[in-house]
Amino acid sequence: MSTGTKIFVSAATCVNPFGETATEHHKVLTAGYAAPDLKPIIKKLCGQPLRQASHLVELGVIGAQTLNQSLQIQGTSLPQETRLYSATGQGDISKNQKLFEQVSPPVCGLAAPFDFINSSANTTAFYVAKILGLNSRNLTVSRDEFSLEVALTLAISDLTNGACKYTLVGGFDETANAACPLFLKMAKNAGVIPGQGAGWLLMTSQEKAALGEINLVKLINTNSAMDNTDWAAMVINYLDNFIDSDKPITLFPGYNISKSESAKITDKSGNCQVQDYVQYSGAYFTASAYGISRQFSCKHKHDRQYLHLIRNGAGETMCVLFRVYGS
Amino acid sequence: MTQTCITGTGIVSCFGVGTGVIATALSKSNPKDHLNERRLSAFNLQDSEHYLVNEIDRTGLDKGYAGEIQLIIKVIKQALEQSGTKGSLTDCGLIIGTSGFMFAAESEFRLRHKHSKNEIASAGYGGLVLNPVINYFGIGGPAFSVHTACASSANAIILGHEMIARGEIKRVIVVGAEGLCAVALSGFQSLMLLDKKGCRPFDSDRSGLQIGEAYGAIVIEARNNHPEKDSKALTILGGANLCDTHHVTSASPDGIMMQQVIEQTLKTAGIKSTDIKFIKAHGTGSPDNDAAEASALNRIFGQATPPITVLKRYFGHTLGACGVVETIGLFACLQAGFLPATAGFKNSDPALAINPLAQSIKMESGYFLSNYFGFGGNYAALLMRYGSETS
């Protein structure tokens, strides 16, 4: 899951837990957060409601359509043959739970047709492709905390092998509910608020008008038995060959990287500062999609390297190294 | 692109464990006598007794997530053993293709309900199934699940093939997994997509799907790893996937996107339509889907359409698993020297101009096309060859 080839990001959008895409309006998420009705935003963005679409579909579509419109404003458009890779860690959990209750005792009734359709993990990707006019490869992938990184890896492989000119990569998840006890327990222990949102990146091997580049997506075989010092040493040692040590780097810790773990990384790396995006996104499996796309969608005065880190239940570490260009 | 090869298979289907039982069942001259289907009794759903399903034998398996994990481990073990893979799997990837892990979550939900535990089952999408399997085998390569409805495991095969062909990994285990669950059965029932008389692919009286469950695993490696097995090998030449955005649950009636995915597959594999010796159609038995697939096949192959077989009546529609399950089923038949008849097909539909095989025929080798079309407009096709290039 690694690549040394330079892959460029030519457009990006992030969606915060309130369905907002303009990053200047994104506020710090506070306890007691409740997911809002996204239908008014969809209606405004798409010109009409997405009839029977679920909340998860709406989250995905808000980001993708905003990215699409930003391209149109620039006088360009998304090529029809753009390959679409969607990542979701939990799928449509609210619809799944609703369906269990519809068909299980004591009700044993029929599944509501649109709940059933929405429960399919690829339904969001269908709506995104339909609204954006895409008809090429359209795959939805999942791997818990690493879902977005799986999608990035597949997209980068396509680009580096010349299978296509553009890939659109997105990650989206809705707020964890009672059907996600393990996730809720993790969030409580980590002191983070469960959130929701989406992030989309349009990637290409062409440098023209790029916002920045993705330099590395890599699984590092750390494990949960390692203490913070050993973990940080292994991560830094591995990344040593990829990071430009002469230039400052921003550590972008995922929702399950603790402050002490972040501190170990910054201690070992001479020119590193930490930036917290989880305060805006909240915690969800594909929150990295929000964090990474947020940096590409903001304006920056100077070039800057970013290192996104997230761990899974086995203690493995997934890193995404990327660079955002200054304007 | 580099060719890859299926070096091992493992399966638990309605016919039992392994491929031998499949070849035996499907080789019978009258396939109707050897179907392993029954009226649904596992769940208490409206009219459930009217629907045929293909169930596996779950004797001795745990309930809930644990049972699903046991089944996946079982088929992977079979596949690894057959491929001769021993030792560490640090250079091996794992891709699970399934419409979702709803069946596993529902099984856990029922287990907890039975034990009156006042808890809701975790609806964790894949990790609760995927992670234990990764840990059990010590998979060190890329590991993830693909969810593209009924094209899920076909797309997983395409991704696995590409990873190896691009030199990213040495071998990949691809799993197709789908258990019977009330949500899926009831969902298709509420969409009026189930045929009470069972799946009748391309038949004039067809009226819908027949749902099945199965778990299959294949090991994919670079073809040159096993040249000695060529005469009995299944080689993957390529595949393609596209998105038809006509409607979330139904295909473009003209089959134009199905045609495109098949044409792109032929192009990717570097094979002409006239080189195709036979076709494994998707053939769900739904009126619209079969009509669209027939249109696509007629436009590509015209009057020279090669023999077509459909496996949905044998295994049931195993949804996201059908890519792997039907590949294994077909492989078992080809190794036994025949192409199976299309169970459930009886009356030609003049509107389709497609007549799948009513009787099995001898088949020793050749290029073939395998189609998979799912909800959400996810279409995939695979181009494979059974036997050596020169045979």
Walk me through the structure.
The complex is a heterodimer of chains A (327) and B (391). By secondary structure, chain A is α/β, with parallel strands linked by helices. Chain A folds into two domains: 7-204, Thiolase/Chalcone synthase (Peroxisomal Thiolase, Chain A, domain 1), CATH 3.40.47; 212-324, Peroxisomal Thiolase, Chain A, domain 1. Helices cover 35% and strands 21% of the residues of chain A. Chain A has a ten-stranded mixed β-sheet with strand order 3-2-4-5-1-6-10-9-7-8, with helices on both faces. Chain A is globular and about 60 Å long. The mean pLDDT of chain A is 93. Chain B is α/β, with parallel strands linked by helices and 391 residues long. In chain B, 31% of the residues lie in helices and 21% in strands. Chain B has ten helices and 16 strands. In chain B, strands 1, 2, 5, 6, 7, 9, 10, 11, 12, 15 and 16 form an eleven-stranded mixed β-sheet that branches. In chain B, β1 (4-13) and β2 form a beta hairpin. In chain B, α1 crosses α10, α2 packs across α3 and α7 (256-269) packs across α8. Chain B is globular. Classes of the chains: A alpha/beta (327), B alpha/beta (391). Chains A and B meet through α3, α4, α5, β3 and α6 of A and α3, α4, β6, α5 and α6 of B.
Q: Roughly what is the average pLDDT of chain A, rounded to an integer?
A: 93
- By CATH's scheme, which homologous superfamily of chain B applies? Thiolase/Chalcone synthase
Model regions low in confidence, pLDDT < 50 over at least 5 residues of chain B: none
- Structural shape of chain B: globular
Share of residues in strands of chain A: 15-25%
The outline of chain A comes out as: globular
Most extensive chain interface and residues per partner: A-B, 63 and 62 residues
Per the CATH scheme, the topology name of the largest domain in chain A is Peroxisomal Thiolase, Chain A, domain 1
The number of distinct helices of chain B, counting runs of at least 4 residues, comes to 10
Distance between the termini of chain B: 21 Å
Helix share bin of chain A? 25-40%
Radius of gyration of chain B: 19 Å
Number of strands of chain A: 10
Write down the Rg of chain A: 19 Å
What series of H and E elements makes up the topology of chain B?
EEHEEHEHHEHEHEEEHEHEHHEEEE
User: How much helix, percentage-wise, in residues of chain B?
Assistant: 25-40%
